[in-house]
Amino acid sequence: MQGSDELSFKEMCARFDVTPRTLRYYEYIELLKPRKEGRTRFYSGREVARMTLILRGRRFGFSLEEIRQWLEMYDQKGDREQYEVWIDRANRQIELLQEQQESLGVAIRDLRELRDETVEILRKMG
Predict the structure, then answer these.
(1) Which residues touch 96 (CB under 8 Å, ≥6 apart)?
(2) Domain ranges of the chain
(3) 1-62: in CATH 1.10.1660.10
(4) Are 25 and 32 in contact, with CB atoms under 8 Å apart?
(5) In the chain, N or C terminus with fewer CB closer than 10 Å?
(6) Residue-wise pLDDT tens for the chain (126 aa)?
(7) In degrees, to the nearest 5, what angle opens at C-alpha 68 toward C-alphas 18 and 22?
(8) Alpha carbons 103 and 109: distance in angstroms, whole number
(9) Which helix (H) or strand (E) holds 64?
Protein backbone atom coordinates (compact mmCIF):
# COMPACT_ATOMS: atom_id res chain seq x y z
CA MET A 1 0.00 0.00 0.00
CA GLN A 2 1.32 3.43 -1.01
CA GLY A 3 2.58 5.58 1.86
CA SER A 4 1.41 9.17 2.05
CA ASP A 5 4.88 10.50 1.27
CA GLU A 6 5.47 8.17 -1.66
CA LEU A 7 4.91 8.87 -5.35
CA SER A 8 3.65 6.37 -7.88
CA PHE A 9 5.55 5.69 -11.10
CA LYS A 10 3.17 7.95 -13.02
CA GLU A 11 3.42 10.73 -10.40
CA MET A 12 7.22 10.51 -10.48
CA CYS A 13 7.26 10.89 -14.29
CA ALA A 14 4.93 13.88 -14.07
CA ARG A 15 6.77 15.55 -11.20
CA PHE A 16 10.12 15.43 -13.01
CA ASP A 17 8.78 15.69 -16.56
CA VAL A 18 10.58 12.51 -17.65
CA THR A 19 9.41 9.66 -19.81
CA PRO A 20 8.57 6.28 -18.33
CA ARG A 21 11.51 4.91 -20.31
CA THR A 22 13.91 7.32 -18.58
CA LEU A 23 12.59 6.47 -15.15
CA ARG A 24 12.81 2.73 -15.84
CA TYR A 25 16.37 3.17 -17.16
CA TYR A 26 17.50 5.00 -14.01
CA GLU A 27 16.05 2.14 -12.02
CA TYR A 28 17.69 -0.46 -14.30
CA ILE A 29 21.14 1.09 -13.78
CA GLU A 30 20.37 1.31 -10.06
CA LEU A 31 20.41 5.08 -9.67
CA LEU A 32 16.91 4.75 -8.24
CA LYS A 33 15.58 1.95 -6.06
CA PRO A 34 11.84 2.32 -5.61
CA ARG A 35 9.86 0.13 -3.25
CA LYS A 36 7.95 -2.51 -5.21
CA GLU A 37 4.65 -4.20 -4.58
CA GLY A 38 4.27 -6.71 -7.37
CA ARG A 39 4.81 -4.69 -10.53
CA THR A 40 3.90 -1.40 -8.87
CA ARG A 41 6.68 0.98 -7.87
CA PHE A 42 6.59 3.57 -5.11
CA TYR A 43 9.14 6.35 -4.76
CA SER A 44 10.00 7.65 -1.30
CA GLY A 45 11.34 11.06 -0.38
CA ARG A 46 14.84 9.61 -0.69
CA GLU A 47 14.17 8.58 -4.29
CA VAL A 48 12.66 11.98 -5.07
CA ALA A 49 15.81 13.65 -3.68
CA ARG A 50 18.02 11.30 -5.71
CA MET A 51 16.03 12.07 -8.88
CA THR A 52 16.48 15.79 -8.21
CA LEU A 53 20.25 15.26 -8.00
CA ILE A 54 20.30 13.03 -11.10
CA LEU A 55 18.54 15.65 -13.21
CA ARG A 56 20.71 18.42 -11.80
CA GLY A 57 23.81 16.41 -12.67
CA ARG A 58 22.49 15.79 -16.20
CA ARG A 59 21.77 19.50 -16.61
CA PHE A 60 25.37 20.21 -15.59
CA GLY A 61 26.55 17.76 -18.25
CA PHE A 62 27.85 14.98 -16.00
CA SER A 63 27.81 11.36 -17.14
CA LEU A 64 25.52 8.91 -15.39
CA GLU A 65 28.58 7.22 -13.86
CA GLU A 66 29.76 10.54 -12.43
CA ILE A 67 26.26 11.10 -11.08
CA ARG A 68 26.30 7.62 -9.52
CA GLN A 69 29.52 8.51 -7.67
CA TRP A 70 27.99 11.82 -6.57
CA LEU A 71 24.92 10.02 -5.21
CA GLU A 72 27.14 7.56 -3.33
CA MET A 73 28.85 10.47 -1.59
CA TYR A 74 25.49 11.81 -0.48
CA ASP A 75 24.32 8.38 0.68
CA GLN A 76 27.47 7.41 2.55
CA LYS A 77 28.91 10.77 3.56
CA GLY A 78 31.94 10.72 1.30
CA ASP A 79 35.46 10.83 2.59
CA ARG A 80 37.94 13.61 1.91
CA GLU A 81 39.26 11.97 -1.26
CA GLN A 82 35.74 11.58 -2.72
CA TYR A 83 35.00 15.25 -2.10
CA GLU A 84 38.32 16.30 -3.64
CA VAL A 85 37.60 14.19 -6.74
CA TRP A 86 34.11 15.69 -6.94
CA ILE A 87 35.50 19.25 -6.72
CA ASP A 88 38.01 18.44 -9.48
CA ARG A 89 35.25 17.07 -11.72
CA ALA A 90 33.05 20.07 -10.99
CA ASN A 91 35.90 22.43 -11.88
CA ARG A 92 36.50 20.59 -15.17
CA GLN A 93 32.79 20.66 -15.98
CA ILE A 94 32.61 24.39 -15.22
CA GLU A 95 35.49 24.97 -17.64
CA LEU A 96 33.74 22.91 -20.31
CA LEU A 97 30.46 24.77 -19.82
CA GLN A 98 32.28 28.10 -20.03
CA GLU A 99 33.89 27.01 -23.32
CA GLN A 100 30.47 26.01 -24.65
CA GLN A 101 29.07 29.36 -23.53
CA GLU A 102 31.82 31.21 -25.37
CA SER A 103 31.22 29.14 -28.52
CA LEU A 104 27.51 29.89 -28.33
CA GLY A 105 28.29 33.58 -27.92
CA VAL A 106 30.38 33.53 -31.10
CA ALA A 107 27.68 31.61 -33.00
CA ILE A 108 24.99 34.06 -31.86
CA ARG A 109 27.11 37.06 -32.85
CA ASP A 110 27.87 35.54 -36.29
CA LEU A 111 24.21 34.70 -36.90
CA ARG A 112 23.13 38.22 -35.92
CA GLU A 113 25.66 39.70 -38.34
CA LEU A 114 24.39 37.48 -41.16
CA ARG A 115 20.78 38.35 -40.32
CA ASP A 116 21.60 42.06 -40.26
CA GLU A 117 23.40 41.81 -43.61
CA THR A 118 20.35 40.07 -45.06
CA VAL A 119 18.03 42.73 -43.62
CA GLU A 120 20.20 45.38 -45.30
CA ILE A 121 20.06 43.53 -48.64
CA LEU A 122 16.25 43.40 -48.36
CA ARG A 123 16.11 47.09 -47.42
CA LYS A 124 18.15 48.02 -50.52
CA MET A 125 15.84 45.89 -52.69
CA GLY A 126 13.02 48.21 -51.67
Answers:
(1) 61
(2) 1-62, 79-126
(3) yes
(4) no
(5) C
(6) 556 689 999 999 999 999 999 999 999 999 999 999 998 999 999 999 999 999 999 999 999 999 998 888 877 776 788 888 889 999 999 999 999 999 999 999 999 999 999 999 999 998
(7) 20
(8) 10
(9) helix 64-76
